[in-house]
Amino acid sequence: MVEPMLSTTSSLETDVLVIGSGAAGLTAALTARLNGLSVTIAEKAPVFGGTSAWSGGVAWIPLNRHALAAGIADSRELARAYIQAGAGDHFDAARVDAFLDHGPAAVDFLESRTEARFELAAEPDYQPGLPGALPHGRALRPVEYDARRLGAHAGALRPPARERVLFGGLQIGAEHFTHFLNATRSPRSAWFVARRILGHLRDLATHGRGMRPATGNALVARLAASAFEAGIPIMLSTQANELIVEGAGVGGAILEGPDGTVRVTARRGVVVACGGFPQDHARRQRVYPHRPSPDEHLSNAIAGATGDGIRLAEGVGGAFEGGLPNPAIWYPTSRVAYPDGSVGHLAHLLERGKPGVIAVTPDGTRFANEALNYHSFVQALLATRREGRAAVAYYVCDHRALRRYGLGAARPWPLPYRRYLRTGYLKRGRNVRELAAAAGIDVHGLDSTVAAYNAGARTGRDPEFSKGENAYDRSQGDPRWQPNPCVGPLDQPPFYAVEIRPGDLGTFAGLRTDAAARVLDGTGAPIPGLFAVGNDQASVFGGAYPGGGATIGPGLTFAYIAGRTLAGAN
Ligand SMILES: Cc1cc2nc3c(=O)[nH]c(=O)nc-3n(C[C@H](O)[C@H](O)[C@H](O)COP(=O)(O)OP(=O)(O)OC[C@H]3O[C@@H](n4cnc5c(N)ncnc54)[C@H](O)[C@@H]3O)c2cc1C
Questions:
Q1: What is the C-alpha to C-alpha distance for residues 462 and 205, in angstroms, rounded to an integer?
Q2: Atom of ligand 1 lying closest to residue 48 CA
Q3: What is the CA radius of gyration of the chain?
Q4: Cβ neighbourhood burial of 288 (10 Å; 0-12, 13-18, 19+)
Q5: What CA–CA distance (Å, rounded) separates 346 from 349?
Q6: What is the distance between the alpha carbons of residues 496 and 401, in angstroms, rounded to a whole number?
Q7: What is the Å distance from ligand 1's center to 80 Cα?
Q8: What are the angstrom distances between the C-alpha of 489 and each of 426, 443, 451, 458, 494?
Q9: Are 534 and 20 in contact (CB under 8 A)?
Q10: DSSP run (H or E) holding 531
Q11: Which one of 41, 47, 348, 552 would you pick to mutate in the ligand 1 pocket, going by the greatest count of ligand atoms within 8 A of its CB?
Q12: What is the pLDDT of residues 202-255, one digit of tens each?
């Protein structure tokens, strides 16, 4: 254990110090505070919300109150069997039982004691072939919010990522997505979209930012509004650099903020909630199976997710669990260059499962069912690695698919896409061979792949990978396209391609914790006074990905457990 070396300029006492202000940190703080403790949050960024504020905000929590109210036929046994089948040798019964026992209570607590509000998301479980999988009912999504409710703190809400907004900050919640896709076909949708855009432009003029957060931005705004209401200070631009050891355990931390060094005494304990290590390139290289250089792997997490919480805990003896089969939530990602010279990472959400879109390696061959969930799809992409060749793929589509569904940063009609041709993000060819040459894909390989694919696609079949043949696949397709909503030929020139690399939404590997979210040391014993929540703790699913919301669901649940444990309420 490390003794603090820094000289301090001020000190502060609190019952609980939470390090990090994402969904997990805010939930731990709220649970401890609303159970009677004083709480302080330290946040190293000048804004609060972390990657949670960039996320979809979906939380996978079986047996939640919304599923029960909707009459979803689920049970603890089914959910447990499903998690166990996915986790295999990494199944941790005690933690999974804690997740299943407390997840529904965490949702009840958040919805009854804070501003957080959820509704059922139309998301099937991601592994429909495993026993216990459900087509619906375990994924919750946050309800939109009015950021004015944050009052003077609204400006410190981390804005959504620029890759995932329109018109300088307009967010589209999943509940309104179809209005945006149908705006040119339905007067009702056109009216909805026009009102949304006008309202957004008014917010930009009066507040300098969008004020209708949706998805994870709404979740964070809601939790933060309740945190401020409960009197929890969030110390912005304040980084935790070291944990303080008191007796046998952790009793506080040394922070560095705008006014210098602060020595915080945390009477009950410290919660690390720093968002995992997706931007810690050195640890990524040690733990990710493809040992990527920074360029070979594109994380979609905030730049500050540099593994601080894990390092802080390791500094006092905490054990890191790096051996999960999938140390991160994989996501196919492209690099987008902006006019100011900066480069962003774009997680490709929408187009892969649609008709008229395929994915190929540089030799022009398909390697997976494109409608697979993103995590499994990138696993298949990683399996294409060869000695001396990184895992790279291209999404290829025809003009009809480009304008209907978009291709990454090039959004669907009526939004313009030509600037992406000018920047080289999007490659184009009048025929498939010309496209292959422009994109650097093997010409003969792509030509024969598209010909073979089209032959089956004309009757809605994909003999090679069975795209569109299960409930999850079809949820990714276009329901207007029949007979197979995921499969259609590429036959409307010109043709387009965009380069895809393996990326992530965050990490699954993390600190070893017990069922109460206490950090364990190398012997398996809990370190007194030290908790890890969110992506700082190793995933309860053992590296499997049961469904959308597989980090935020456990993130909220174990934060709730940590807050109650700290307050002596468990
Ligand atoms: C585009 C996208 C979509 C996603 N959608 C979903 C989804 O729908 N469902 C889902 O489950 N997951 C989703 N994810 C993943 C999810 O966002 C993360 O797994 C989750 O938000 C992590 O939450 P957290 O509270 O652990 O950390 P974060 O939300 O990242 O918060 C950590 C905070 O800690 C701060 N911090 C770091 N180091 C320090 C330090 N030393 N001192 C003080 N503060 C520090 C950071 O600045 C940050 O604000 C998505 C991710 C992305 C990128």
A1: 50
A2: 49
A3: 24
A4: buried
A5: 9
A6: 9
A7: 26
A8: 20, 18, 9, 6, 13
A9: yes
A10: strand 526-532
A11: 552
A12: 888 888 888 889 999 999 999 999 999 999 999 999 999 999 999 889 999 999
